[in-house]
């Protein structure tokens, strides 16, 4: 089973398109903040959350519960693709229904490998993967640049270092981020795929 969670009006053929809004005409109506979810443990082969996660979990316990559910329904090694607006872009800032910024480092907190590294290094990052008994590895991160940055980079007017500086200094440089996670089961067994 492949889940397109929070599909809205963007249905994907061959996937179970899920949304809480009946007007979107999803295959299944599910409120993703109502836990637990209706799917069995270890039943899902792939999940997409495209411009959804930033709308969920204003309360920390709900947000963390969503990640526990993502882990519970996932099969070992399955992929979760998360596409979100960058928290320093107007697309994120202007929408009053966005309740939480989603970042690469924020999602890394669900990796037990990263958690163990932080603990050994005496870091202050919260080891959520260990605390929650879940484990997600970051497979890839892709950033879509906004204009004029994208055009300037493609024309060779600025370097990757210039972009890194701009992204850490200015708003509206990165438009959206796509982060792919992989479920590791049992939690903490990185070589189990």
Question: How are the secondary structure elements laid out?
Answer:
Elements lengths: L1 E4 L10 E4 L8 E2 L14 E7 L9 H14 E12 L4 H4 L10 H5 L3 H10 L6 H5 L3 E10 L3 H6 L5 H10 L4 E10 L10
Parallel strand pairs: 1-2, 1-4, 2-3, 4-5
Antiparallel strand pairs: 5-7, 6-7
Question: What can be said about this structure in brief?
Answer:
By secondary structure, the protein is α/β, with parallel strands linked by helices. It contains 7 helices and 7 strands, in the order ββββαβααααβααβ.
Question: What is the tally of helical segments?
Answer: 7
As residue ranges, the low-confidence spans are: none
**Could you tell me the strand content as a percent range?**
25-35%
**Name of the CATH first level:** Alpha Beta
CATH superfamily: Vaccinia Virus protein VP39
CATH fold-type name: Rossmann fold
Distance between the termini: 18 Å
Main beta-sheet strand count, sense and barrel state: 7 strands, mixed
Q: What would you note in describing this structure?
A:
The protein has a 7-stranded mixed sheet. The mean pLDDT is 95. The chain is globular. Strand 4 (44-50), helix 1 and strand 5 (74-85) form a beta-alpha-beta unit. Helices cover 28% and strands 25% of the residues. The protein has a single domain, classed as Rossmann fold (3-Layer(aba) Sandwich). By secondary structure, it is an alpha/beta fold.
């Amino acid at each position: 089973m492949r889940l397109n969670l929070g599909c809205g009006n963007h249905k994907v053929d061959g996937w179970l398109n899920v949304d809480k809004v009946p007007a979107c005409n999803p295959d299944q109506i599910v409120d993703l903040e109502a836990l637990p979810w209706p799917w069995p443990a270890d039943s899902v082969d792939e999940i997409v959350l495209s411009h959804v996660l930033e709308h969920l979990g204003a309360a920390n316990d709900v947000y963390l519960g969503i990640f526990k559910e993502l882990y519970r329904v996932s099969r070992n090694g399955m992929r979760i693709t998360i596409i979100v607006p960058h928290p320093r872009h107007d697309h994120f800032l202007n929408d009053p229904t966005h309740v939480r910024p989603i970042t690469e480092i924020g999602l890394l907190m669900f990796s037990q490998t990263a958690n163990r590294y932080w603990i050994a290094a005496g870091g202050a990052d919260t080891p959520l993967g260990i605390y929650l008994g879940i484990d997600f590895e970051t497979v890839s991160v892709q950033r879509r640049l906004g204009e004029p940055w994208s055009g300037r980079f493609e024309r060779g007017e600025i370097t990757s270092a210039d972009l890194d500086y701009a992204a850490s200094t200015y708003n509206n440089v990165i438009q959206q981020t796509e982060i792919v996670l992989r479920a590791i089961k049992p939690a903490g067994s990185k070589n189990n795929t």
